[in-house]
């Protein structure tokens, strides 16, 4: 009951039986407590909203979250704490450009993308066939290896095996190369114990001065990042300021820089437009009443927008979102002051 003496009259329906869901179209998956409100005060409606209730025309309902097929969570945006994102700022700038000189945003999704996709498909076709052939050869090599067949018999005629990785050489090949090299060296010149001792890697000097042009110069200081140098200079300046401030009786008051302050939403909306813009934006609040001339003038346009939203977002058929549904869903209201 409101302070003025008005009452809220509702008819409770319960929430035990499931009915059709408007989101996933499940015939018996939607469970909620519902009641038909013949009349309702604004304060009672506010109390219901604060407790998780919703309204669709004159029908007020509260979903049973742990039982319904599509739980609905209320998201509240505090207008006083709202900060526009980068996308919001871009949209506002585009709107200002349109109002000032009629500039429209350039559409990115045109027919050129289809041609690019077709060209990419044509270029990737030979690569996919080569990949399939390589996989088939690798599969054949694996089967022959498990069966004990020689690897050379797997390759088809005209198909050469892939080259070996230079970093993964068989140890037997290395041993053969080293033995042949040793025999050649022995045949040409005899080896001395001193040379053999010098060739062993264990006796390398711990610190060797690099040759000019190779490696870092140990006589010069090590390289440092510019970021670290800037930090060090900033710390030195702060220490100097603290020492100077300690000598004076009154410490200086730092001035707040206004350049780092983010722009408010009002700053983006109230950006200066030319004195004679090409378009003008007018926002008008119209009461939902068929006796109001402004509401009647925009009724067909609003109903068409509602039908477009329902068919595009929710996938409803056109006969499910006609003018009668628009009146029942958005125009009829039980609220009274």
Please describe what this structure looks like:
The structure is a single chain. This protein starts with 8 loop residues before the first strand and ends with a strand. The longest helix is centred in the middle third of the chain and has 36 residues, at 112-147. The protein is 42% helix and 8% strand. It has helices at 42-50, 86-101, 112-147, 171-188, 193-199, 226-247, 265-269, 293-297, 299-314, 323-331; strands spanning 9-14, 32-41, 54-56, 59-63, 335-336. The radius of gyration is 40 Å and the shape is extended. The chain is α+β, with helices and mostly antiparallel strands and 337 residues long. It contains 10 helices and 5 strands; from the N terminus they run E-E-H-E-E-H-H-H-H-H-H-H-H-H-E. Strands 1, 2, 3, 4 and 5 form a 5-stranded mixed beta sheet that branches.
Write a brief caption for the model.
The protein is of the alpha+beta class and 337 residues long. It has helices at 42-50, 86-101, 112-147, 171-188, 193-199, 226-247, 265-269, 293-297, 299-314, 323-331, and strands at residues 9-14, 32-41, 54-56, 59-63, 335-336. Strands 1, 2, 3, 4 and 5 form a 5-stranded mixed beta sheet that branches.
């Amino acid at each position: 009951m409101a302070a003025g003496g008005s009452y809220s009259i509702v008819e409770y329906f319960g929430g035990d039986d499931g009915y059709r869901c408007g989101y996933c179209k499940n015939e018996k998956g939607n469970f909620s407590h519902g009641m038909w409100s013949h009349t309702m005060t604004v304060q009672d409606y506010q109390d219901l909203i604060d407790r998780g209730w919703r309204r669709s025309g004159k029908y007020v309902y509260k979903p049973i979250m742990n039982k319904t097929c599509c739980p609905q969570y209320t998201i509240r945006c505090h207008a006083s704490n709202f900060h526009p994102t980068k996308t919001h700022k871009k949209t506002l700038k585009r709107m200002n450009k349109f109002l000032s000189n009629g500039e429209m945003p350039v559409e990115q999704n045109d027919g050129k993308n289809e041609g690019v996709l077709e060209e990419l498909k044509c270029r990737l076709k030979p690569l996919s066939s080569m990949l399939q052939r390589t996989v088939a050869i690798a599969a054949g090599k694996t089967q022959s290896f498990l069966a004990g067949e020689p690897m050379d018999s797997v390759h088809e005629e005209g198909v050469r095996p892939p080259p070996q990785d230079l970093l993964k050489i068989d140890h037997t090949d290395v041993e053969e190369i080293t033995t042949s090299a040793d025999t050649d060296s022995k045949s040409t010149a005899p080896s001395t114990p001193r040379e053999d001792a010098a060739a062993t890697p264990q006796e390398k000097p711990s610190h060797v001065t690099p040759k000019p042009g190779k490696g870092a110069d140990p006589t010069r200081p090590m390289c440092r990042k510019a970021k670290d140098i800037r930090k060090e200079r900033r710390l030195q300046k702060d220490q100097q300021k603290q020492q100077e401030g300690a000598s004076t009786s009154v410490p200086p008051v730092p001035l707040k820089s206004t350049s780092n302050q983010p722009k408010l939403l009002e700053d983006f909306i109230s950006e200066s437009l030319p004195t004679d813009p090409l378009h003008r934006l007018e926002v008008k609040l119209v009461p939902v009443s068929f006796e109001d001339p402004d509401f009647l003038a925009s009724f067909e346009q609003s109903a068409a927008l509602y039908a477009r939203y329902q068919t595009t977002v929710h996938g409803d058929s056109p006969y499910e979102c006609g003018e009668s549904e628009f009146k029942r869903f958005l125009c009829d209201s039980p609220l009274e002051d």
